[in-house]
Amino acid sequence: MYPDTTSIPTNSKDISTGAYYFSGQSYYDTLYTKYKFYGKSSYTIHVVNNGSTALTVKAKTLTKTYASTVIAVGASTDLSLSGMDASTKFYISFSGDYNTNVSGYIK
After folding, report:
1. Is 18 exposed, middle or buried (0-12, 13-18, 19+ CB in 10 A)?
2. Are residues 102 and 54 in contact, defined by beta-carbon separation less than 8 angstroms?
């Protein structure tokens, strides 16, 4: 697993070569995946909220949000993205009110 970061990613990863697993924890700060993702026209993002508050998850670029959902404490969900341009590079952000603790994958 790779840790998440509290900075918007600058490096990119071609996700067509396989799944990327993520996990991380932060207090008060928004977490971001280590990479921006590209390489496919559809994606599945599986997220588990291991924190103590509801978790807002967004798949986005700086100017556009492709998907967004709120996950209850202890719950998990799948976000599906489709109709994407394979060259579009997007990242995933995770934010909670206090203790953000997240794990999951994108494929």
Report:
1. exposed
2. no
Q: What is the pLDDT of residues 30-82, one digit of tens each?
A: 999 999 999 999 999 999 999 999 999 999 999 999 999 999 999 999 999 99
How far apart (Å, rounded) are the C-alpha atoms in residues 53 and 45? 20
- Residues forming beta bridges with residue 15, ordered by sequence position: none
- Strand 55-60 relative to strand 91-96, pairing: antiparallel
* Residue 27 in this model has a pLDDT that exceeds 70: yes
Cβ proximity of 46 and 76 under 8 Å = yes
Give CA–CA dist 39/13, Å, rounded. 8
Cβ within 8 Å of residue 56, ≥6 positions away: 68, 69, 70, 71, 93, 94, 95, 96
For tokens 């394979």, what's the residue?
86
Beta partners for residue 26, in sequence order:
100
pTM (2 d.p.): 0.92
